[in-house]
């Protein structure tokens, strides 16, 4: 009965994309994806949308074939893992939620933006939305305990919620300082603390903290933001060292993206454009990454492929930090 339901569900999905992408094999659980058939191309298909569609069929194994040769079976890279992602209603958190769900994880999408979060989660198989204000420790405690109770474990935490403000130290009010640090520094601290509590008891888990190249370079007009990201960088390494030395089995790593194409970057760009059109024009010419670049790093750090990666800082900036970089001024 269950297999029939899955079969029908996948047929519906296949129709929505391309009926030739996957076809039923004699085994009810096995789907075949033929790299030569998908678009009728002469060359092997490299279309990432098609690939993620195939990988996203999380009900069964997928056998990849090409030229009638078996290339191998594909299982989800984070099958059966349970993930909390904060800031999941938008940008990098949303891209990461999609990617982990595609690879078999159950994803709890946590965000303060309920309207957007619920709409996004409804479109992702394997995801559910939960309202969370990361600045509240009691809310964190409840969420982590609820997830373990409802899903049986917490294997992955991505602390991705963040707010950015453009201001030098001279322009930074106490209110701005506290706002940026409440979401970034405090929110990540509470998340790490409560995830570590349950992951330590499980003897396994992966915590990933979204930092920024701002924590490596600083910047004249991102004083509070760079400070918060630097705190998160130190927090990450301290959690990793504790876990490694105490034998908790929990890994903690940070990701340091350069400019990525998200609503946050759009907002920053518009402010820079208003105050400094020359720098805005430079920003337009400068490298900007795709959120899926970050989501793929999140996937790697979430999966058991990165089992020996602990306390590391993963920079995704196409050399911006080691070349001239971008320093927008206001
Ligand atoms: N976009 C970039 O260029 C870039 C570069 C480096 C680092 N980052 C970092 O990546 C993370 C995600 O950024 P983004 O570009 O996707 O931004 P975004 O603005 O698109 O998304 C941020 C999300 O955080 C949520 N959020 C804000 N305050 C919250 C709170 N108190 N509790 C729960 N959720 C809250 C927002 O509702 C939003 O959905 C941030 O930590 C940011 O600092 C972004």
Q: Main attributes?
A:
4-stranded mixed sheet, 330 residues, Rossmann fold, alpha/beta, disordered N terminus, 2 domains, 11 helices, binds nicotinamide-adenine-dinucleotide
Uncertain ranges = 1-30, 36-61
Spatial ordering of strands, largest sheet:
7-6-5-8-9-10-11
Order of helical and strand elements: HEEHEEEHEHEHEHEHHEHHHE
Please summarize the sheet with the most strands: 7 strands, parallel
Structural class comes to: alpha/beta
CATH class of the largest domain: Alpha Beta
Based on the coordinates given, report the CATH architecture of the largest domain. Answer: 3-Layer(aba) Sandwich
- The helix fraction, in percent, is 40-55%
**What small molecules accompany the polymer chains?**
nicotinamide-adenine-dinucleotide
Instruction: Please provide the count of β strands.
Output: 11
Average pLDDT: 83
Instruction: Determine Rg (CA atoms, Å).
Output: 21 Å
Description:
With about 325 residues, the protein is of the alpha/beta class. It is about 45% helix and about 20% strand. The chain contains 11 helices and 11 strands. Strands 7-6-5-8-9-10-11 form a 7-stranded parallel β-sheet, sandwiched between helices. A 4-stranded mixed β-sheet has the order 1-2-3-4, with no helix packed on it. The N terminus is likely disordered. The structure holds nicotinamide-adenine-dinucleotide. The site of nicotinamide-adenine-dinucleotide has 29 residues, from helix 3 and helix 9. Nicotinamide-adenine-dinucleotide (NAD) binds next to helix 3 and helix 9.
